[in-house]
Design a protein that fits this description.
alpha/beta, Rossmann fold, rod-shaped, EC 3.1.11.6, Exonuc_VII_lsu_C, exonuclease
Length: about 450
């Protein structure tokens, strides 16, 4: 009982009295407004009331060393939001470093709070620039700033992984440009949906890149496209983590995020950057157009070369055939003359021998006449027999050589013969008797005749 009486006489205060005392002390001690720096841990904006209740923190070495609640009245938040958009291109949001003007207050129920009167966007803009500079410095220090730019990008990009929002204007513009190009089915797209702006965009885009990495062998390139949102919400593309993922990605990344002023870090490390999704699509299509033009020029050159070579070869073959004919005729004429001269010499020799034999018979060698005449006659006879055989052998060799050369020439002519070209599956299309080489020169209603190996086909251009 004594203990209870002792407790009853102890001086005490109610909780509300303590709260009022704290409030009074804070109002007296912190009667002015103060500029404070902090990070918005969570904005806590409520659209219905229009008020904002940001959770403000200070971090050192990644650890929170201070954590207080703030309050922004609807009218003041609208003013702050508008000013932020004009200067920084984005609204106040989670993770943003801010410099704000506030007064301190204490409420018996809600506790200590900071009544925010204004936020200085230039401070936040400076922080954003500092973070961008730090991200670039770290990427260069790691030696990966230009790594994605060093990858191989095919001249004709045919399979593309797209990081975008399916219903976004940028993605629709990108697809429309490809569909309306001269090569509408040349580029295959596969969408990997992701958020493209705001606080959650970094994690969302990295998640999409992770999915693409698992099947990167299926793609020539990745495109990150965003459009229709102006230049707000682009600070996520200055994120070191996102930029590092882009730098280290195994296939080229192309960007078209609708940003026309200072390049973000992601745009700087990407393989290629174009301002809008439309520009990006046109760039991909232009490569196909340029390649098709080069092919047409090569085809035209080959056609002209083939025609010229065929004409030149045919002229050369005609000239060689004429030369061969003249050479054979000249050779035969020379052989005939040689035979005639040889025959004359033999005849003269025989006549002389006969004269000598006759003289021998009449005056000197009556007994040896028969033997001499016989031997002389046999010698002359052998010469006469041997001369035509040698001439025939030489002539036949020349003729065989000429036939072989003519055979080679005939084989070349057969290879170049248009009929053999048709036989191999080709065709010749003519318009009014002239060969058609370019489909662009044909007009609707033109009557064409296509010659095949067997037969012809008539058709009309529509």
């Amino acid at each position: 009982m004594a203990d209870m009486n002792t407790s009853a006489v102890k001086k005490h205060y109610s909780l509300s009295e303590l709260a009022r005392s704290l409030s009074s002390q804070i109002e007296k001690t912190y009667s002015k407004s103060y500029w404070i720096t902090a990070e918005i841990s969570k904005l806590n904006y409520y659209p219905q009331s229009g008020h904002c209740y940001p959770q403000l923190v200070e971090k050192k070495s990644g650890k929170i060393v201070a954590d207080l609640k703030g309050f922004i009245l609807k009218s003041k938040y609208q003013h702050i939001r508008t000013k932020f958009l004009e200067l920084t291109g984005k609204e106040p949001g989670d993770g943003m470093q801010i410099l704000f003007l506030c007064t301190l207050g204490f409420h018996a129920v809600y506790g200590l709070s900071l009544n925010i009167l204004d936020i200085e966007p230039s401070y936040t803009l400076g922080e954003m620039a500092r973070m961008r500079t730090e991200a670039i410095k770290k990427l260069k220090a790691e030696g990966i700033f230009d790594q994605n730019k060093s990858l191989y990008l095919p001249l004709l990009v045919q399979n593309v992984a797209v990081i975008s929002v399916e219903t976004s204007k940028g993605f629709l513009d990108f697809k429309n440009v490809l569909a309306s190009s001269p090569f509408p089915n040349s580029i295959n797209l596969r969408l990997f949906p992701a958020l493209l702006q705001g606080d959650a965009a970094v994690a969302s885009i990295i998640a999409a890149l992770t999915k693409i990495r698992q099947v990167d062998i299926d793609f020539d390139a990745v495109v990150i496209i965003r459009g229709g949102g102006g230049e707000t919400g682009l600070d996520c593309y200055d994120s070191y983590n996102l930029a590092r993922n882009v730098s280290l990605f195994p296939i080229p990344i192309l960007t078209g995020i609708g940003h026309a002023t200072n390049l973000t870090v992601v745009e700087q490390v990407a393989y290629k950057n174009l301002i809008t999704p439309t520009d990006l699509a046109r760039n991909l299509v232009q490569n196909f157009i340029d390649f098709a033009t080069r092919l047409k020029n090569v085809k035209r050159s080959l056609t002209n070369f083939r025609k010229g070579w065929f004409t030149l070869t045919r002229n050369e073959l005609d000239a060689k055939a004429n030369q061969l004919e003249l050479a054979v005729s000249e050779k035969l004429a020379n052989r005939r003359n040689h035979i005639r001269r040889s025959a004359n010499r033999i005849n003269n020799g025989v006549e002389n021998a006969l004269v000598e034999a006759k003289a021998s018979i009449n005056y000197r060698m009556p007994m040896r006449l028969n033997g001499v005449v016989k031997n002389r006659f046999e010698t002359c006879n052998r010469k006469l027999n041997a001369q035509p055989a040698s001439l025939a052998h030489s002539t036949m060799s020349q003729l065989k050589e000429s036939q072989t050369n003519l055979g080679f020439i005939a084989d070349k002519l057969r290879i170049l013969d248009p009929a053999n070209t048709l036989k191999r599956g080709f065709s010749i299309t003519t318009l009014n008797g002239k060969t058609v080489n370019n489909a662009d020169e044909l007009e609707p209603g033109a009557e064409l005749e296509t010659r095949l190996w067997k037969g012809t086909v008539k058709s009309t251009v529509k």
